Amino acid sequence: MTITICFTNNKGGSGKSTVCANLAYELSQAGKKVLMVDGDMQLNLSLSFFDEDKVLEMAESGHNLYEAVRGKKDLTDYITPTPYENLDLVPSSTLMSQVEYELFTMMQRELVLKKCLKKIKESGVYDYILIDAPPTLGTWVINILCASDKVIIPVEASPWGLFGLANMFDFLAGLEDMTDASIMGILITKVDERKNYYRQTKEILDGFEDMNVFETSIHVDSSVEWAQDASKPVAAFKKNTRSAKEFKQLSEEVISYGSR
Fold it and tell me: Under DSSP, is residue 74 helix (H, G, I), strand (E, B) or coil?
């Protein structure tokens, strides 16, 4: 059964795209077939696997998510293989900034992406579909949530990292009649052991009832930025880094969660 997971947080800078890209890579390395969907106009997920020229070429072509959503097309024809086995991508477009307007004119606008993914999901070709959402709470994010089974919320270990998380929970609660998506877990990112923010963030999150906080947390690691500059997942760039090991541990948590 294909499991669709979206990565969302209405606060920017939480590391959504980084987590999505590296988790997808680690799942593929574990033998899982993974499709990534770049739902953010910033193109960061696409840039994690292709250089800027290639990403802009896809963004300006008719072979991207925006064109598929605008035409309510089956996403099968918009899939681009990445350089890595078991790992494919539906690239984004800078025109995703207009997707809210495009959706506004459509019937059942909250379900457009779900319908675009329907054949892919029913085919069972992929074990996981991972969707990177923009840092907003509009109609497009509702679309992403309606197309998802599970939600991962990356939260930065910083003074403002938890800002807006209550709004995120309220937003999800308000969609209970529209989507079956549930929170798989909260992932603490950008941890710096020299500061107390991680401990404070963990204590606050542990105080939420019935909320899974991943045992894995993602530390600040310059290798991530170097890998992004090279358009590679961090483990493909430098395998024995701390963050590479952490993303591998996260993939093991996600896989084990699906077997519960």
Answer: coil
